[in-house]
């Protein structure tokens, strides 16, 4: 997966350079969405009537291939929001994940909960784009950025009024946390072996300062796992594949959400 990550990052450098030629920063700043106040994912994760789930819209991935290429983004994301999602995650990478910025704009048009732009952010330009298309949160992946790059991009996003989700995979990446990384995502999937281990995530969780919101990512397909992670101290749960591989992702989310609420009520 590290090779895939390197391949994606290398492609992203070229892709961003091309996009800069098409739309200037000034043009992006003139978009209607650029002036809207971003919603706080941290706040939404703490709302008791919501599930804490950041529900993802994803068509394909480099490791799994096509997951769902027939689902309609507005229909699916509206169903997620209606059934208690705390936030949405929308893939905007086209080459490797089949997403687009239009997907995020469509999701924004019909939803009033926070939206994470899920992409491989390596440049300020992508942060400006995120704001211009209506995102509230940007993802920074510690694995493909230096500590200095994380610090710079997080501060840049924060100054635009966006929140930052920093994704980490190992203890040594925790040193890349900055005051402007509002949420810390711990990927349960080992990027080298693809193995999912939520217990490893819980060990990592203990090392993260209390003031940051913690988000578990990957490999959660059972409401009981969410209960375990919630009790351990996680605030958010990024889930996409489990819902997207269903014929009706919105309905799959509704059933999962109902089961989760029942389990939490029993505590």
Helix content: 40-55%
Average of per-residue pLDDT values: 94
Radius of gyration: 17 Å
Name the quaternary structure: single chain
Largest sheet: 8 strands, parallel, barrel
The counted number of beta strands is 10
Beta content: 15-25%
Quick recap:
The chain has 11 helices and 10 strands.
List keywords for this structure.
alpha/beta; 8-stranded parallel β-barrel; two-stranded antiparallel ribbon; 16% strand; single chain; 267 residues; 11 helices
Structure description:
The chain has 267 residues and is of the alpha/beta class. The chain has helices at 2-22, 25-29, 41-45, 73-82, 101-110, 124-132, 147-159, 198-205, 223-232, 241-244, 249-265; strands spanning 53-57, 60-61, 65-66, 87-91, 115-118, 137-141, 163-168, 183-187, 213-217, 236-239. The strands form 2 sheets. Strands 1-4-5-6-7-8-9-10 form an 8-stranded parallel beta barrel, surrounded by 5 helices. Strands 2-3 form a two-stranded antiparallel ribbon.
Q: Secondary-structure blueprint of this entry?
A:
Layout (H helix, E strand, L loop, with lengths): L1 H21 L2 H5 L11 H5 L7 E5 L2 E2 L3 E2 L6 H10 L4 E5 L9 H10 L4 E4 L5 H9 L4 E5 L5 H13 L3 E6 L14 E5 L10 H8 L7 E5 L5 H10 L3 E4 L1 H4 L4 H17 L2
Helix pairs in contact: 4-5, 4-11, 9-11
